[in-house]
Amino acid sequence: MNASLTGKARIAGVIGWPVAHSRSPALHGYWLREYRIDGAYVPFAVRPENLGAALRGLAALGFRGANVTLPHKERALALVDRVGEVAQRIGAVNTILVEDDGTLSGDNSDAFGFIENLREGAPGFDAAAGPAVVIGAGGAARAALVALADAGAPEIRLVNRTDARAETLAQSLGRPVRVVRWNDRAGALEGAALLVNSTTQGMAGHDALDLDLARLPKTALVSDIVYVPAETPLLSAARARGNQVVDGVGMLLHQARPGFRRWFGIEPTVTPALRAAVLGAGS
Q: Is residue 5 part of a domain?
């Protein structure tokens, strides 16, 4: 946060419940200092029953906008005045802009962050190169599926422990998403060009993802949305067998770019120093 705020300061924030764990204040705070912006980015712990009042208060308080994190992303979709096309497809809002007339526009930058992370971490990455396998059927999976479909993936194999949840997600998104049963997950890796873990498996305090990589081509890229730790058991196993890997830190960093640009008027850059600062904020 800028220590020398004025009455003209641009203010944004993050709304969640809880919100103390969020790395967004460290992320946006770094950029505010880097670009010497008269502004601030503030965390707000908002109970679910108070979300509507909190969002309406943004305009009244002169905020430029806010990020919305768990558990509010899906509910925010119905509380803003207009919703971007990507947010509609993902079914959740994570970025809100307060327009000049006080109305709220909601969008979702998670798909952008996901694909930009792959492009940065694996230069030359091309989603159209072959089938992608996505493990999980939650909000992060939905963002990954939308991103990969838009980037030209010819086939996306969706695998989840609960088949019904995967089927519902696949039906809502349509082609090129195809559900593969959990018991057939090892076979789903055959001929894949990309493997994505969108679950919390492998996160600190959670069990590792139960997946045999034997049938995954050595040429496939392996990515994990988990960023604590940055090197998950999945990425370690993939790296050991010769696969290129991309961790989840970059998705967090890149998804923040559209909001920062809209609130503070500058297109920020993702750098190694930013990555180190954000990871260090949680230690």
A: no
pLDDT tens digits, 131-149? 999 999 999 999 999 999 9
Examine the domain organization and report whether 131 and 15 are in the same domain.
no
Q: Please, where are the H alpha helices in 14-133?
A: 24-34, 51-60, 73-76, 85-90, 110-121
List, in order, residues 6 or more apart from 28 with CB less than 8 Å away.
12, 41, 256, 260
pTM score, whole prediction: 0.95
Beta bridge partners of 11: 40
Name the active-site residue from 73, 89, 254, 275: 73
Q: Which two tokens stand for residue 239?
A: 């790296």
Q: 73 catalytic, yes or no? A: yes
How far is Cα 136 from Cα 145, in angstroms, rounded to an integer? 11
User: Is there a single domain that holds both residue 96 and residue 128?
Assistant: no
Straight-line distance from the first to the last Cα atom of the chain, in angstroms, rounded to the nearest whole number: 19
